[in-house]
Amino acid sequence: MRQRLEIREAEAGLVRLLGGERLDGKRFLDIGSGSGFHSLAALRLGAREVVAVDIDADSVATTHAVLSRFFPQGPWRCQEKSVFELKLEEWGDFDVVYSWGVLHHTGDLDRALECAARMVLSGGLFLCAIYRRVWLDPFWRWEKRWYSKASPTAQVWARKIYVGLFWLRLLVTGRRFSDYVGNYRDKRGMDFYHDVHDWMGGWPYESRGPEELLAKMQTLGFASVRVFAYRGRWLGRSLGVVGSGCDEFVFRRG
Asked: Model confidence over 210-219: pLDDT tens digits?
């Protein structure tokens, strides 16, 4: 039941980015497929072919298991591969290229954007989510570098401190921590505490402001279709006390 709910949430999120449209007859590339739910969502929305890639072998295996269970008839394929290894002559171009919360962890965000964008055919869409730039970015870069090398015990204490700050932030804004955590999986498709570990250990780490990303994509021949960017207050995400979060973008090529 929980997994099916997460699949519906992934499908709703994809439909939101697509402006309510379906993917009938389109080729769909999922860069950083993770759980595989968004690749599955693309198939459920009518994509004629889905290609899912991830540099993590466990993620590739999970994607394969999810697609095999819920959409065994295909057409899909998944492979362990980096965005930097994608080649037009091998894969062809795609009507829709999708990468949610991945490219900012590659160590070279600009080059990753270029590699992903070149896989989009003329008139096609590029859907991505990128960490927004916040005031505390220098701290988070330091923290993530430290956390990725810290002992398991040190990581546990770091997560406790982070969760305490998060609890305080919710309290200040009039929300209950128990309600937030209880509803978190339904909204995000992940366990809150697992997501905390992913956030704190997400190294390499880069971020961009919406204007910066729009300017970058214009140089690659893309126009903005829609942007879901958060405009936070001082104690909100613009400061970045408990993280930066992602802004979402939809671009059309040429």
From this structure: 999 999 999 9
